[in-house]
Amino acid sequence: MTEAELEAALQKAAATYLNRFAPSVYQFRQMLIRKCRKLSTQLTPDIIEIRISAEIERRLNQGILNDKSYAENWARKMHGSGKSILQIRIKLHQKRIAKEIIQQTIDEISNHKSKFASALLFAKRKRLGPFAKEKDQDAKQRWKELQKMVRVGHNFDIAKTILNGNLDDLERDSDL
Fold first, then answer.
1. Please, what's the b/e burial string for 32-42 (b: 16 or more CB within 10 A of its CB; e: otherwise)?
2. What is the maximum span of the chain, computed from C-alpha positions, in angstroms?
3. Whether the Cβ atoms of residue 154 and residue 119 lie closer than 8 Å to each other
4. Are 45 and 37 in contact (CB under 8 A)?
5. Is the distance from CB of 21 to CB of 70 less than 8 angstroms?
6. Hey, CA dihedral for 161, 170, 141, 91, is it positive or negative?
7. Which residues make Cβ contacts (< 8 Å) with residue 39, sequence separation at least 6?
8. Mean pLDDT, the chain, as a whole number?
9. How do the domains of the chain map onto residue ranges?
10. Inter-axis angle of helices 85-94 and 99-109, to 10 degrees?
11. Of residues 76, 82, 132, the one with CA closest to residue 105
12. Distance from CA of residue 65 to its chain's centroid?
């Protein structure tokens, strides 16, 4: 396989992949590497790396690849489903997003009201506190629920407020 054929194959694979997914730069690079392995080309690894980097650079310049918007979308999605800031930070780190981008994204979505809303969504989803099936809970059960919320990264005071709160007051306070 020649360099021109490799470049054409990478462009085709990139276009197909980007039509289906909105990946991070790292995920896109991994896909291109897998594609080159499947092609079992006779070219040197240096030439392959140059072609992969050129394709990534081309897509970055076009604005198709953007780790900042990728991180913001993931963070909004996870925060909206009740994930804690800690869980969001870990997930973005696993996706190999730069630390500066992660911090900017976390700063944008984290305020007290959004932390409260996220913890409230978590409690609803897991049926904790006032959302539990059994309304009469003993102290041991309430402590377990509090531990569950704190373990996934929600603030202790916010978790305690939600678990001790009245259902009507909580929904009014969160503006949900």
1. beebbeebebe
2. 72
3. yes
4. no
5. no
6. negative
7. 1, 6, 9
8. 87
9. 3-62, 67-109, 112-174
10. 150
11. 76
12. 16
Contact at 8 Å (CB) between 20 and 64? Answer: no
pLDDT along the chain (176 residues), means of 10: 86 94 94 88 86 94 93 90 89 95 90 80 88 81 90 88 74 55
Report the pLDDT value the prediction gives residue 176, as an integer from 0 to 100. 45
The 3-class secondary structure across the chain, one letter per residue, is CCHHHHHHHHHHHHHHHHHHCCCCHHHHHHHHHHHHHHHCCCCCHHHHHHHHHHHHHHHHHHCCCCHHHHHHHHHHHHHHCCCCHHHHHHHHHHCCCCHHHHHHHHHHHCCHHHHHHHHHHHHHHHCCHHHCCCCCCCHHHHHHHHHHHHHCCCCHHHHHHHHHCCHHHHHHHHCC
Q: For residue 118, what are the contacts with CB-CB under 8 A and spacing of at least 6?
A: 79, 80, 82, 83, 84, 85, 154
Tokens 């394709």 sit at which residue? 55
Q: Which amino acid is at 101?
A: I
Structure tokens, 158: 């916010």
- Write out pLDDT tens, residues 146-165: 999 999 888 898 888 888 87
CB atoms near residue 49 (< 10 Å): 14
